[in-house]
Amino acid sequence: MRSISTGLITETVKNAFLRANYDIGADITECLEKSRREEISPLGRDILGDILLNDEIARTERIAACQDTGMAVVFAYIGQDARIEGGDFNEAVEEGVRQAYSEGYLRKSVVSDPLFDRRNTGDNTPAVIYTEIVPGDRIRFDVTAKGFGSENMSAVRMLTPAAGVEGVLDFIEETVSKAGPNPCPPLVVGVCVGGTMDKAAVLAKKATMRPVGTHNSDPRYAGLEDEALKRINKLGIGPGGFGGSTTALAVNIDFFPTHIAGLPVAVNICCHVARHASAEI
Asked: 125, 97 in Cβ contact below 8 A?
């Protein structure tokens, strides 16, 4: 049994959210550079260049890459042989979010009541926390600061099994087409096929965090990723919504077993400011 203090958990979560907001991953940067070389629209190429410059300034100056610094989402994988000491695990995570958004001068965007009062909580908590017990004695955090320009454009649809591959592809394309310029393209599109309504939504969000350029290990789903990306980039929405051939950088599709009567599909859209980071203690 290995002991892990809540103080270390707080510090780890804080640093992860600071990195997520300041450091856009190398996978995104490389894809943006490749897209700029291949983009057919001159304006689109200029916009992609501006995005790359913006991300470099955020990285070097340690300032947020976007004014929407997101709602904090935490996936925590807790080793079954780890013992948490010094307090409550969830509160330690929340404190890490508080410190990150205060010390990092990150915009605090969470309201306590979603419908009536809509008063800002003042520290970007509560976070959305998912925990999973795994083998080992360590804790791994995968965090994402999810902006709502893109989150608002996401969707879940409960298809029937008869919809098949074409139904899934049509829904992905339809969701991005309806979103238009609103989610700040170019996008990373996370998709989950299967599970239940809620399981599909969670796994679609996790799919947005998979490195751009990687594919599902199942070649059938890898083929779906390629086909969905081609369809999306033929929509002509383009960088910033001003037209062009780069509407999405990647479509990451995962799947989960489901009921014989169902075919749930969730599409979680992420903008090019793909704020996520990982840490292990």
From this structure: yes
**Cβ neighbours of residue 114 under 8 Å, at least 6 residues apart?**
none
Q: How many domains does the chain have?
A: 2
80 and 174, same structural domain? no
Q: Are residues 135 and 180 in the same domain?
A: no
Domain boundary residue, one of 146, 164, 191 = 146
Summarize pLDDT for 88-142 with one digit per residue, the tens.
Answer: 999 999 999 999 999 999 999 999 999 999 999 999 999 999 999 999 999 999 9
Domain that holds residue 131: 2-20+65-146
Q: Angle, nearest 10°, between helix axes 26-38 and 42-61?
A: 160
pTM of the predicted model as reported, rounded to 2 decimal places = 0.93
**Pair (157, 205) in one structural domain:** yes
Q: How many CB atoms lie within 10 A of CB 208?
A: 24
Indicate whether 127 and 88 sit together in one domain.
Answer: yes
